């Protein structure tokens, strides 16, 4: 059984804040918990904020954060970021930040996750995993889902290839993106119109709790990508 | 708080089996539960099985199930199915079925979900929602995640556009694909190498529990799709 617990009452995050402190004061963590933290508050704590005076400034910022634009339609830009993510507007985000300010993606969200994980261990003595999540659209399917931008203490992908299925036949390709699924599960208690930027996913398979990296496991190299 | 419960001990499913019976005998459902059922057992119950003698037969079956091929590399075909899904090998699946047999996607997975929902209501008196899930790859990101092929009694997408964010600013585009996120959450207790084809997601926001449809809400019309 898995439980997904919202962490309520996290205050407004400012540059320099230690997110681990805000979490540790609000929930009793257990060993093996996966703490999911939305990109928004990670970016705020890391000071990844930029002023955007108008629509032109916003567009310039998106272009600066993009290494390549894949598609463009009216105000929407689908581009690849320097971190290798393909998403709308290079992750530049105007919601839930002050008027005239945009939040950018963390420079290295795996590192952000490791920092929070280590700080939680130091404060609570608990061995937890951390996923930094963001909300992405998808081709072909309407609607947004939360995915993992970075992780620490949990595999981004669990490779079940070569494991026999229940009939003893070898499974074909079954690399499950568990960090993404954990991010999606957490989103179910966060909502976009509520102020819940952190959730705890308790009870994941202990074998997944190894050192992981979204950047090296999930981001598809150009050569193997059929859609880049 | 949300809990995700595996439904253990579901036996091998055969054409004509009533999946609701297999579930109702194994878990006490509550009103508002979302019952997630993998496509594999839905396809088996509905008799969506075809013999595949060899690799050529498999390829012909994939082409028959596809309305359009988007990409092809060696044995992998990314195509659009008649249901409008874009996925690998048109959803034709050889794992966890008998040797020489392939499972095809349900003809109409929303209808499959409604059937299971109605049958569960008749047997248990419980008003539950149902999501039929499948395991899809994604462009740009490695690893597979479970998504919704069909749903009943739950919105596929919850539209939070126009809702004020916590600062009173209007949110831009925040249509959350909750049925997909529920499918991903359920996968966390299913695993691919265990025999857990059903899970219950308990505690989702009651406002999401309306009549929904993956086909009409999630499948992106060609005209608005930047990647089709």
Summarize the structure.
The structure is a homodimer of 228-residue chains. Chain A has 228 residues and is α+β, with helices and mostly antiparallel strands. The first copy, chain A, has helices spanning 19-24, 39-45, 55-65, 109-124, 178-190, 214-217; strands at 2-6, 34-38, 49-51, 66-73, 76-81, 86-88, 101-103, 129-136, 145-152, 158-159, 175-176, 198-202.
Task: Set down the secondary structure blueprint.
Two copies of one chain form a homodimer.
Chain A: E1 2-6, H1 19-24, E2 34-38, H2 39-45, E3 49-51, H3 55-65, E4 66-73, E5 76-81, E6 86-88, E7 101-103, H4 109-124, E8 129-136, E9 145-152, E10 158-159, E11 175-176, H5 178-190, E12 198-202, H6 214-217
Parallel strand pairs in A: 2-8
Antiparallel strand pairs in A: 1-12, 2-12, 3-7, 4-5, 5-6, 8-9, 10-11
What does this protein structure show overall?
The structure is a homodimer of 228-residue chains. Chain A has 228 residues and is α+β, with helices and mostly antiparallel strands. The first copy, chain A, has two domains: 3-47 and 106-219, 2-Layer Sandwich (60s Ribosomal Protein L30, Chain: A); 49-104, CofE-like domain (CofE-like fold, Alpha-Beta Complex), CATH 3.90.1660. Helix content of chain A is 25%, strand content 25%. The first copy, chain A, is built from six helices and twelve strands. In chain A, strands 1-12-2-8-9 form a five-stranded mixed sheet. A three-stranded antiparallel sheet of chain A has the order 4-5-6. In chain A, a hairpin with a 4-residue loop joins β5 and β6 (86-88). The radius of gyration of chain A is 18 Å and the shape is globular. The N and C termini of chain A lie far apart (37 Å). The model of chain A has no long low-confidence stretch (mean pLDDT 91). Chains A and B meet through β1, β9, β11 and α5 of A and β1, β9, β11 and α5 of B. β1 (2-6) of chain A pairs antiparallel with β1 (2-6) of chain B.
